[in-house]
User: Fold this.
Amino acid sequence: MSITRRQLIADSSKLALGLGAALSAVEQAQGAQAAEKPADKLRIVVCGGHPGDPEYGCGGMIARLTACGHDVALLYMNEGDWPPTPANVRLAEAQKACEILKARRLYAGQKNGHSIVDADHFDQYRKVLEAEKPDVVLTHWPLDNHRDHRACSALTYDAWLQMGKKFALYYYEVSTGEDTQQFAPACYVDISAFEAAKRAACYAHASQTPDSYYALQDSVAAFRGAESGSKRAEAFLLQRGGPGDLLSGALKSC
Ligand SMILES: [Zn+2]
Assistant:
């Protein structure tokens, strides 16, 4: 069965119809902005299991890329609904985080803690990415203690294969040691000048105890910085077989 993103949003039993309509309107408006992107700028999608994952794992780099005109969308696989915090609160926090990072918000229609990785959802997720026509996609490193993160990584990797390995695929880390396991990155991005924007985007997820989670992620950023010669860094691993290290090329002029 073919499922469109808008149908998934509309069908979501945990989202009010008004929220679904608001999401569609926001995404249409943001899509119109993306269509005006200059030809020399990259289209980048950062995939995460939950609202907050792209921000914690890649927020500094996202801020750095959007500051020099690249188009970045944050694709949340699920809406983060988990008692006592409902989906509309999590998605509103995500919208605020995206505005801080000057990125667009996308939602793949799954449910928090109930990831589905089957033929229909592989196809549905791939169609969301196909609509974005990305040059670069980032996703969770597949070894992760959270099943939603593993599912997000599997769905993204399958889309990369099915789309003919057309985009550069990178893996990122989040809550390293607690979630991400055995990550050995090879690409380091200096985010020292963008740490404040990353912090603000992470703290936009106010319902998710940012004091503790940001402290952990910031210690990882300091460690990656020490490894690579900067105050703060984010680290990534490029999947072999794609069009090459497009991010490093773009960041040379950012
Ligand atoms: Zn997560």
Observations:
- The chain has a mean pLDDT of 89.
